[in-house]
Design brief:
seven-stranded parallel sheet; Rossmann fold
Length: about 375
């Protein structure tokens, strides 16, 4: 291994924004490895086709639930074997395990990214993170200004802001009719879409409730990409609301540029977020977005073509959807989502900024 080996430590390698970000960085750097604390290689590769591209540089520790000192020592041995130059952790669990292992192994600079800050509202969680920052001394990065401000207020620490980025060549609009044919979506209907894990934090229930209130668009469809533990409950909700013929569950979608290009509007109804890549991806495909105003979301929404609504407010979300569907874009809005994404969410810019930070090393 070369002395510039970069090792990302994540909690798991299941489809998600942080995981996709680490994979994109790995794809650009042949000396980059990813260590997943949880899970087994065979299960992960089976569940996520995308992992096969760089499978030789993915490592799985299958950490048991709860505290696992053995996992720290396994990490120490692996970091030494890889001759890690940079250890980059994402979220608190990887910081504790990866940070301790990096300090014991020696020779590696430690960088940590906070991807959201809602967990710091819990005093016990904030105390743990504060201890980790003081003891392990990582270079701290926040993926949004709102996250950096929360780190400053709750922990008294300054964080470098580096917003997440996407591959603009991969995420660009394609022919809408072709995209819909690929996914089996109706060609004539208005299609609203969302993408994300079907878990409580994403609050798909709110979106389904808001969609049901949009009576002015009775032929519109709602396409939901993603999977998770709440899928059956959400399908039951759709049935209870009489929306079976209008809400489409697509499951895990690998061809995200095609999915996004098939949409007239993208909606993110989360209760908590950091700086969500899905919003940047949708806008890179020139699709306008609506999102709940949480975390760093406001920084990821084009102020010309996008809309923000209060979290948990189905009525406000329904009104925003109807406004977006029935107000034709003005000349100033045409192309605005793509332009915004290129300016604010470039993967090349993000990687360059991390590269500069890696060169600085850990705090003294």
């Amino acid at each position: 291994m070369g002395r510039n080996t970069i090792v990302h430590v994540v909690q798991h390698l299941r489809p998600g924004g942080i995981e996709s970000l680490a994979l994109e960085m790995q794809r650009r750097d042949p000396h980059c490895h990813i260590i997943s604390l949880e899970g087994r290689r065979s299960d992960a590769l089976l569940a996520w086709e995308r992992l096969g591209v760089t499978a030789d540089r993915l490592h799985f520790l299958d950490k048991p639930s709860g505290l696992s000192p053995r996992t720290v020592w396994r990490l120490v041995r692996l970091l030494r074997k890889l001759k890690a130059h940079i250890v980059h952790t994402h979220h608190v669990g990887p910081l504790l395990y990866g940070g301790l292992a990096a300090r014991i192994a020696g020779g590696a600079r430690l960088v940590h990214t906070e991807h959201d800050a809602w967990h710091l509202e819990d005093p016990r969680r904030a105390k743990v993170v504060g201890w980790a920052f003081r003891t392990l001394r990582p270079r701290i990065v926040a993926d949004a200004g709102a996250v950096a401000e929360c780190v400053r207020q709750k922990l008294g620490r300054q964080a470098t802001i580096i917003r997440n980025g996407i591959d603009m060549d991969r995420f660009r609009g394609i022919d809408r009719d072709n995209a819909r044919r690929q996914l089996g979506l109706p060609s004539e209907s208005v299609v609203i879409g969302t993408a994300g894990r079907l878990e409580a934090v994403k609050n798909h229930r709110l979106l389904i409730d808001a969609f049901a209130r949009c009576t002015a668009a009775p032929t519109a469809r709602l396409a939901i990409a993603g999977d998770g533990s709440l899928r059956q409950d959400l399908e039951q909700l759709v049935s209870e609301r009489g929306l079976e013929n209008r809400v489409i569950f697509l499951g895990q979608v690998e061809a995200m540029p095609s999915f996004l290009s098939a949409l007239d509007l993208f909606v993110l109804s989360s209760d908590r977020e950091g700086y969500p890549l899905t919003l940047i991806e949708a806008q890179a495909c020139d699709v306008p977005v609506i999102a709940t105003r949480v975390g760093g979301v406001a920084e990821a929404v084009c102020p010309v073509s996008g809309q923000l609504v209060p979290a948990g407010d189905a009525e406000a979300l329904a009104a925003a959807i109807e406004k977006a569907l029935f107000n034709k874009p003005t000349a100033s809005q045409s192309g605005a989502p793509r332009f915004f994404a290129e300016r604010e969410g470039s993967l090349d810019v993000m990687i360059a900024r991390y590269g500069a930070l890696y060169a600085q090393g850990s705090t003294p």
